[in-house]
Amino acid sequence: MHVYMKPCLEFFHVNRFNATRLLEKLRNKRLVFVGDSLNRNQWVSLVCMVEASIPDNRLKMRVFNGSLISFKAFEYNATIDFYWSPLLVESNSDDPIIHHVEYRIIRADRIEKHANAWRDADIIIFNSYVWWRKHKDDMRMKVMNGSFENGDARLEEVEMLDGFEIALKKLTEWLGENIDKNKTRIFFAGSSPTHSWASSWGGVDRNKCLNETEPIYKVGYKAAGTDYSMMDKAKSYFGTLEQKGIRFDILNITELSDYRKDGHPTVFRKQFAPLTKEQMANPASYADCTHWCLPGVPDVWNEFLYGYLMYK
């Protein structure tokens, strides 16, 4: 048995996921995933894990304003939502469909529009990493202060990681001032690793993670794109909430997921338009080695979340 697998197996043995028990825990409560498509990946996983235990006529899923997707188990009056907010604060990437923009712009002082979607939640799981990573060496972003309405708008160009800190600062300040510490529990998910550089595990880069059928067995492996310093920054900012008596935990999914090069949808991911044969034969451009298959790795993330909610 590999060293990194032992604590995980012990956890599952003691705290095996039970959908009915979780729904009882969520009775009359609202749980919200807030962030990007990887957090949506986990939301879909959790919905799949609980809905099989509920008769079909007692559950409902609906879309509100495009950014908010809601699942409700009526028998328990339990709600599990996902809210699209990839950069945490307001930005030019807030459209859940049309968000591939050349320059990312965040509003350093604006979060209220997003916060209204989670203000009343009992449990919130935030994530935000992949949108702050550079895709090319000269990639930067812009931060907007002020507003066009007041005529004092100004743009400042910053490094991506500086923008990450600006967003973390604004988010944690808002949470510290507005969250009911007697009601709401906060989580921040660790970085979800990508497996796009096959040479990291001895493969061929042009294949990315296509046709990988086994995890990485090298103990201590770290994916090339995983930046642990970003998680340290997030932990530092969110740690300020504990000083105010707000319950906060890091959902540590990163090291476990680093090994799972075999867990991505690659060229078989559902697309708006199906890939052609030529595109499927070009994994370097079209294989999705960022998101995860379901059932799969996000189910394990939710096993961890279940353990926190039920036993801590």
UniProtKB/TrEMBL annotation:
<dbReference type="Pfam" id="PF13839">
    <property type="entry name" value="PC-Esterase"/>
</dbReference>
<dbReference type="InterPro" id="IPR029962">
    <property type="entry name" value="TBL"/>
</dbReference>
<feature type="domain" description="Trichome birefringence-like C-terminal">
    <location>
        <begin position="16"/>
        <end position="306"/>
    </location>
</feature>
<comment type="similarity">
    <text>Belongs to the PC-esterase family. TBL subfamily.</text>
</comment>
<protein>
    <recommendedName>
        <fullName>Trichome birefringence-like C-terminal domain-containing protein</fullName>
    </recommendedName>
</protein>
<dbReference type="GO" id="GO:0005794">
    <property type="term" value="C:Golgi apparatus"/>
</dbReference>
<dbReference type="GO" id="GO:0016413">
    <property type="term" value="F:O-acetyltransferase activity"/>
</dbReference>
<dbReference type="InterPro" id="IPR026057">
    <property type="entry name" value="TBL_C"/>
</dbReference>
